[in-house]
Design brief:
Layout lengths: L1 H51 L8 H31 L8 H34 L4 H4 L2 H18 L3 H4 E8 L2 E9 L4 H59 L1
Helix pairs in contact: 1-2, 2-3, 3-5, 3-7
Length: 251
């Protein structure tokens, strides 16, 4: 009976392993096929942002600056993440493990750009919401000086929030009989200090890049939607009053 149970467990374990390998192969295939489309269309789209924004009449100066910043951040993300990952899966060449400096800089830039994109969007939407609530402050908020200050603060905040990547990220090697069989650019979780730092950072990143932006954007959206609804209602009331006056004049 015990032998039968052991055999059943072995079969189940084997099936799970096969399923895991199959799922991993499927993901790799998706990356191989889908990544070129993301790279091509993403690059084309972000370049078009720059070309369209050359026309100053398209949007306000401050919004144009933020949109360009988003485009640059997205382009870096495409080349630093999607492209390098596609090269690893397609050609089995991992650029991230060529040198430790590449590993550190790549992870730092990747996470910094992610934070930068998130907070740039928050600043853009918040500026629109403030402009709706306090229209007389639009010129001050969207001035060249304020836009430049916001731009610098966004970049510094994004870089500093993820600065630990420059120190704690490294190339992890797996060896069998002193032969390196696998390399990965990641944090060294065997080190207690590194593990502690990344545990703390996960919570900080969750708050600063997910929860807090979500709350701010939610409030901004409520303000904007409420303003749109109010404006629509006022416009309908004005049209109704105008129609009534015209009807009385005809009578």
């Amino acid at each position: 009976m015990e032998d039968n149970n052991t055999s059943l467990q072995d079969i189940t374990s084997s099936n799970n392993s096969i399923h895991s390998v199959s799922s991993q192969d499927s993901w790799i295939t998706i990356w191989k096929v889908g990544s070129p489309f993301i790279i091509i269309f993403g690059t084309f789209g972000n370049i078009m942002v720059f070309l369209v924004l050359q026309d100053r009449s398209v949007t306000h100066h401050s919004m144009a600056v933020y949109l360009r910043l988003l485009a640059v951040s997205d382009l870096i993300n495409i080349f630093d993440n999607v492209t390098l990952r596609w090269i690893r899966y397609q050609f089995r060449f991992d650029v991230w493990v060529v040198h430790e400096a590449i590993c550190k800089l790549s992870l730092w830039v990747l996470w910094s750009c992610s934070t930068l994109s998130t907070w740039t969007l928050v600043v853009m939407v918040t500026q629109r919401a403030v402009a709706v609530v306090w229209p007389h402050k639009v010129n001050n908020l969207s001035s060249t000086h304020m836009t430049f200050v916001a731009l610098i603060l966004l970049i510094i905040f994004s870089m500093m929030t993820n600065a630990h990547m420059l120190y704690f990220s490294t190339i992890i090697e797996m060896k069998v009989e002193n032969i390196v069989i696998w390399k990965s650019c990641n944090a060294n979780y065997d080190d207690e200090v590194t593990t502690t730092v990344f545990k703390v950072w996960v919570w900080i990143n969750t708050m600063t890049s997910s929860c807090l932006p979500f709350i701010i954007l939610l409030v901004d959206d409520v303000v904007l939607i409420r303003r749109v609804v109010t404006s629509t209602r006022e416009a309908r009331d004005h049209l109704a009053v105008g129609s009534t006056k015209q009807q009385h004049m005809r009578d």
